[in-house]
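Exercise (ungraded).
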Amino acid sequence: MLIKNGQHDFGLITILLHWLIAAMTFGLFALGLWMTQLGYYDDWYQKAPTLHEGIGILFLIILLVRIIWRWVNPLPQPIPTLKRWEKLGSHLVHSMLNILLLVIAVSGYLVITAKGEPVQVFDLFSVPATLSGFSNQEDIAGEFHLLVAWIMMVLAVGHALAAFKHHFINKDATLKRIMGMK
Amino acid sequence: MRKLYIVFLAGLISLMATNLTHAENYTIDTKGTHAFIQFKTKHLGFSWLHGQFNTFSGSFSYDESNSSLSKVDVEIDTRSLDSNHAKRDKHLRSGAYLDVKVFPVATFNSTSFEELGKGKAVLKGDFTLHGVTKNITLDVEHVGHGYDPWGGYRRGFTATTTIKPAEFGLKEMVKLGPHSEVVFLELAIEGIRQAYEQKVFN
């Protein structure tokens, strides 16, 4: 397998970034829902949000790397058996997923930094606040964060189901390609 | 000449007004932020956690000759809760606590005022928080009054009380543990006396 994308195959970096983002997306979504249900005296009451915030910033960095990689390294040709609407539709869903993930990450950052506090990424580093001090910023950004996360999740599940459909029903290379299999 | 005439007229009206009534109306100086509504509660019993409401408005009247006629009305924007920590503020404003979307306003309307002497007084009033109204009692201390350096007349008080937020339907408060059951409230307010003309024509 090549490092970069080929004419018909995904390269190693594209494949790794795809699955890393996928795993982090589902992990952060589940962690986010779980941590907001925790009680004040729960062992994870402090730890879970710390994890969510730290992983969230790492997620944002990886997502930006992925978007840049997508720009500098052209995608392989679409699978030839795809219909025109399928090519357009999948392209639209992929773009939407990237945009929504970016919006979710940024809105999460705006919650924590609403009063000028930095986001701590474990013991590694911290990201300072940039846009802060808007009235009720933490409330608005927080609601947005949750709402867009749900919309993104519906799209992500649809994206996965479409891949399974192509694999099991159309029996084409859609899923195999992104798993690095011939 | 015309200016002098206006000043004279204003003086005359204010003199007339003084004769009409002794009750003085004050607007709480929130513009210059010489007024604070703060709260504190214990964190796990280890320390005090302080916060405040940044946005509120109100007025009071004070009658030196018959202070029992004094009246206080305050309206608090609950969305302005500020404990200097974005995540906590978001949590305290959410449906789990103050539910500020549903209850964006808390109000206090006094029902009685009784002076105890030595600048102390007891103020009772209806406090509406989280949609629940309860009559609460505040200990009042008269801090001072007089002319400010810019031509206005000011009067200031502090009022303190304790509430149990659970009694106002903030059920999640109970989950914070026994040390956080009680919340101390302090109102430190300074009022600017309103011009007499305004009162006469109102």
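Further reading is listed at the end of the chapter. For now, observe: Chain B has a mean pLDDT of 90. Helices of chain B lie at 2-20, 86-93, 196-201.
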